[in-house]
User: Which sequence fits this backbone?
């Protein structure tokens, strides 16, 4: 097994971690399966694509600048869609989020068409020769940017007052309310944060993969795979799970035709769920953000 395969797998895993991170936080804190997560990912992809095509700005930079816009979008979804429906019927939350996914995908298709797109940056075809391995600059820069995002989210959750309140809400929502935590406002913050992360991951994916408006379904499946493998234990568990999935995809891609890679990965998921339903990396009965 060449070093290049392992390095590329790690870099890909960092991108996958960012893609799954928002989904993991939403599940862990709000106990909501956000099926619209991938729609925000693909919306970030096309937002970055449009800015790159119009002004030749790197999508990673563009989505950092646009993060407040996506944060507000996610907060509005939490305030006017998720929160009112969750008080009456949690099933309706899932249905409404799926409806939002369909609406966003339809809008994206109408605006940008269903054609396959790709982004060619100045360094897209360049490689870094390490002597023992050749690594794509696109994956190297994108992986580093995704690692920075994961670390920033971790620091925010661990050391900021808002992050500590979010962690308290994830442990016991009722107790947090009794202690004076505004869980409705925090729910908006969580949804806004995870939407901004999802949009950034979409920009990251666009720098290394071609994309269409429908590709987000595959990304959603991959995000669920990472979350389930890692469990709802912590950001660290999501990171390790994402790295494992990235390396497994890279290694299996060298050993078998690519169409069998997805099958192998989801067979692995089935085995994990059969023998350790809480996830490979999760601690039983403990949820930590």
Assistant:
């Amino acid at each position: 097994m060449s070093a290049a395969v392992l390095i590329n797998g790690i870099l890909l895993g960092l991108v996958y971690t960012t893609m799954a991170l928002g989904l993991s936080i939403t599940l862990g804190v709000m106990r909501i399966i956000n099926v619209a997560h991938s729609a925000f990912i693909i919306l970030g992809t096309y937002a970055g694509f449009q800015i790159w095509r119009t002004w030749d700005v790197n999508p990673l930079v563009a989505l950092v600048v646009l993060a407040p816009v996506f944060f507000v979008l996610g907060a509005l979804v939490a305030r006017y869609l998720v929160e009112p429906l969750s008080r009456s019927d949690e099933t309706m939350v899932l249905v409404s989020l799926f409806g939002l996914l369909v609406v966003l995908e339809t809008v994206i298709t109408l605006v940008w068409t269903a054609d396959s797109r790709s982004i060619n940056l100045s360094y897209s075809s360049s490689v870094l020769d390490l002597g023992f391995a050749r690594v794509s600059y696109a994956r190297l820069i994108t992986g580093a940017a995704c690692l920075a995002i994961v670390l920033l989210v971790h620091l925010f959750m661990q050391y900021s007052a808002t992050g500590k309140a979010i962690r308290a809400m994830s442990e016991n929502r009722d107790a947090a309310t009794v202690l004076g935590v505004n869980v409705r406002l925090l729910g908006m913050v969580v949804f806004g944060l995870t939407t901004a992360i999802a949009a950034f991951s979409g920009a990251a994916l666009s720098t290394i993969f071609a994309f269409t408006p429908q590709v987000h379904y595959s990304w959603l499946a991959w995000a669920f795979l990472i979350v389930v493998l890692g469990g709802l234990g912590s950001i660290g568990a999501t990171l390790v799970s994402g790295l494992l999935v990235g390396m497994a995809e890279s290694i299996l891609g060298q050993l078998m035709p690519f169409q069998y890679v997805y099958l192998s990965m989801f067979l692995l998921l089935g085995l994990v769920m059969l023998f350790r339903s809480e996830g490979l990396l999760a601690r039983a009965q403990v949820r930590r953000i």
About this structure: The CA atoms of residues 96 and 169 lie 24 Å apart.
